[in-house]
Design a protein that fits this description.
By secondary structure, this protein is of the alpha+beta class. The protein has 3 helices and 7 strands. A 7-stranded antiparallel beta sheet has the order 2-1-5-6-7-4-3, with helices on both faces. β1 and β2 form a beta hairpin. The protein is globular, with a radius of gyration of 14 Å. The two termini are 18 Å apart.
């Protein structure tokens, strides 16, 4: 698997609001996958989750993650990013989830009464498939 930086055409794809699935590791080593929104910024990935999510618990215990992004117009084209969570912090004022929601929906995140946590993922390796 290649290491970063990713080619320009993949970075362009990742900059768009495509469907994606994140994988974390349960304590027994088995995978836990969840559909998620993301932002691609400066060669890193930002994801955000409700403070009560299991994937957050798993990230805290083991920072290794994988994110697979599917091209929304051609799901045979995808890129998988393998890396580590290098930062977890409370999303004060819901600033990060609002940025991500605007990227996907064009408006702020509607649920305002639950704490959220932002995770920055540093990509270590990647794999892409598609035309």
């Amino acid at each position: 698997m290649p290491t970063p930086p990713l080619p320009a055409e993949l970075q362009e794809m990742l900059a768009k609001p495509h469907p994606s699935v994140i994988a974390t590791l349960r304590p027994d080593g088995s995978p836990h996958t969840t559909a998620t929104w993301y932002l691609w910024e400066d060669g890193r990935v930002l994801v955000n989750m409700d403070a009560g999510r299991k994937r957050l618990e798993y990230m805290r215990a083991d920072p290794r993650v994988s994110l697979t992004v599917l091209d929304g117009s051609d799901w045979y084209s995808h890129v998988s990013l393998l890396g580590r969570v290098v930062s977890l912090k409370d999303d004060e004022g819901l600033v990060d989830i609002d940025r991500i929601a605007r990227h996907y929906r064009g408006s702020d995140y509607p649920v305002r009464d639950r704490g959220r946590v932002s995770a920055w993922i540093e990509v270590q390796r990647w794999h892409a498939w598609g035309p």
